[in-house]
């Protein structure tokens, strides 16, 4: 979760850069600026270690051991009971190797097997609903401030960046508390709080930009913590043999939601006005809330226990 904190920090930095660059040099220059991190990331990826679990699944045991040794050398924790923990580790490794020998291959069909079908549908709904709300709000706020409330462009961009400040704080709180509250309870609370804030804003009519700054930015921040938490939760509910397929298809729903949300917001805004935009977001939260109640709790559980 702390590593995922870089996501809202990146949005915050981009918002600040955009507020300065776009009014002075035009929006086209943002593409040039955005390309620089992409080039740097290419070199950073080359330094990433491969997953030991994946290497074991490919029977590359020496390479897996090498990666694990580097992890052990880097950790500062030395409060283990060797006899107790080695016995437990050997037992789990035996189960893991046995499981991988029988289940080394997977396909998209297994996502819809009786054991994983419910998880797959739930996590797809979570990704779609949370990102529909979060990215719909985040993408539209600058335009709403500028076109609906007729604020200057630079002020509109600055106000929109407040959402990213709130979101950064919310993700940090989530990172510190998620192992205490549990993934399921956090998601339920997030959808409930976000939906309530958006419903209140819609009922009040969103008559001035300051109510939008307070309520919509807070709603985005709350939902932003769940969108980031899903990057933690989704890989936990699938075993290594199908983790890439399961997580990849689940995250594709965030792309679909992020693409359709701005279009639908524009249509609702033109047909019914600004208040109905926030009421629509509140309605989508209900879908996410229902899905969250069916989540498989993964907190403080061993991966082999969660996903056989």
Mean pLDDT across residues: 86
Which CATH-level-2 architecture of the largest domain? Up-down Bundle
Q: Provide the gyration radius in Å.
A: 22 Å
Question: Helix amount, in percent?
Answer: over 70%
Number of strands: 0
Low-confidence segments: none
Look up the CATH topology of the largest domain: Growth Hormone, Chain: A
Determine the number of helices (DSSP H or I, runs of at least 4 residues).
12
What's the name of the CATH homologous superfamily of the largest domain? MFS general substrate transporter like domains
Order of helices and strands: HHHHHHHHHHHH
- What structural class do the secondary elements suggest? mainly alpha
Number of domains: 2
Supply the CATH class of the largest domain.
Mainly Alpha
Sheet with the most strands? none
């Amino acid at each position: 979760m702390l590593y995922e904190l870089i996501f809202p920090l990146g949005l915050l930095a981009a918002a600040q850069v955009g507020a300065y660059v776009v009014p002075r040099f035009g929006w086209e220059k943002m593409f040039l600026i955005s390309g620089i991190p992409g080039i740097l990331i290419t070199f950073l990826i080359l330094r990433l270690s491969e997953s030991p679990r994946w290497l074991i699944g490919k029977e590359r045991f020496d390479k897996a051991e090498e990666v694990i040794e580097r992890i052990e050398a880097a950790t500062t924790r030395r409060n283990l009971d060797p006899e107790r923990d080695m016995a437990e580790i050997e037992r789990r490794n035996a189960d893991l190797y046995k499981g991988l020998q029988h289940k080394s291959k997977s396909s998209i069909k297994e996502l819809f097997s009786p054991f994983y079908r419910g998880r797959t549908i739930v996590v797809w709904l979570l990704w779609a609903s949370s990102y529909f709300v979060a990215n719909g709000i985040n993408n539209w706020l600058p335009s709403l401030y500028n076109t609906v409330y007729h604020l200057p462009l630079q002020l509109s961009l600055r106000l929109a960046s407040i959402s990213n400040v709130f979101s950064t704080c919310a993700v940090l709180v989530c990172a510190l508390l998620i192992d205490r509250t549990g993934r399921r309870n956090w998601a339920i609370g997030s959808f409930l709080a976000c939906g309530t804030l958006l419903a209140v804003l819609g009922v009040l009519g969103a008559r001035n930009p300051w109510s939008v700054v307070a309520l919509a930015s807070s709603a985005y921040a709350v939902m932003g913590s769940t969108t980031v938490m899903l990057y933690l939760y989704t890989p936990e509910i699938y075993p290594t043999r199908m983790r890439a397929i399961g997580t990849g298809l689940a995250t594709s729903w965030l792309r679909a939601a992020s693409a359709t949300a701005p279009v639908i917001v524009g249509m609702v805004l033109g047909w019914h006005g600004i208040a109905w935009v926030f009421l629509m977001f509140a309605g989508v939260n209900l879908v996410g809330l229902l899905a969250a109640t069916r989540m498989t709790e993964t907190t403080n559980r061993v991966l082999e226990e969660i996903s056989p």
